[in-house]
């Protein structure tokens, strides 16, 4: 059995299902989100060797080492991770993570991403998680690169 926990409008929902039922459950959750105009967020998310927990606001490397992230570094990481594969412009990132309508100097975000990569990427100069989409912005990789 697989036990999943999700937060829905501030309430915790524990779901217990088999692997076969997981696909159906994801469809139901998506339908509920669309029909009720709410956001359902999994409490603990992971992707192969990438573990992030929004309740404890921690990121743990596959070695088991907990990585210290500043509040905004965690917010940025969680935002991108929660929208894996979706490309965001720098302006969209500023709006969603910092709450700015008008983005400050775009070079600030590049520097911020660089510092975050230094903490979470195995090879920061060849990132496998936070990917630059040239001429557009950034995304979190849908699949982990080898």
Strands ordered across the widest β-sheet: 4-5-6-7
- Low-confidence stretches are none
Could you tell me the number of beta strands?
Answer: 10
Question: Main β-sheet: number of strands, strand sense, barrel status?
Answer: 4 strands, antiparallel
Structural category: alpha+beta
**Overall average residue pLDDT:** 78
Helical fraction equals 25-40%
Taken in chain order, the helices and strands follow as: EEHEEEEEHEHHEE
Overall radius of gyration: 16 Å
Using the alpha-carbon principal axes, give the shape: globular
Q: Number of helical segments?
A: 4
Cα separation of the termini: 29 Å
Please, could you describe this protein's structure?
It is built from four helices and ten strands. The protein is an alpha+beta fold and 146 residues long. It has a four-stranded antiparallel β-sheet with strand order 4-5-6-7, with helices on one face. Strands 2-1-3 form a three-stranded antiparallel β-sheet, with helices on one face. The protein has a three-stranded antiparallel β-sheet with strand order 8-10-9. Helix 2 packs across helix 3 (90-98). The model has no long low-confidence stretch (mean pLDDT 78).
């Amino acid at each position: 059995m697989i036990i999943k926990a999700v937060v829905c409008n501030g309430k915790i929902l524990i779901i217990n299902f088999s692997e076969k039922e997981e696909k159906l459950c994801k469809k139901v959750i998506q339908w509920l989100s669309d029909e009720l105009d709410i956001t359902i967020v999994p409490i603990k998310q992971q992707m192969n060797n990438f573990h992030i927990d929004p309740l404890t606001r921690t990121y743990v490397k596959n070695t088991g080492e907990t990585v210290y992230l500043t509040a905004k570094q965690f917010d940025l990481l969680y935002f991108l991770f929660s929208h894996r594969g979706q490309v965001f412009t720098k302006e969209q990132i500023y709006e969603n993570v910092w709450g700015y309508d008008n983005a400050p100097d775009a070079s600030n975000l590049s520097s911020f991403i660089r510092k975050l990569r230094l903490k979470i990427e195995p090879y920061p100069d060849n990132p496998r998680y936070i990917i630059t989409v040239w001429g557009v912005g950034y995304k979190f990789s849908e699949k982990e690169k080898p």
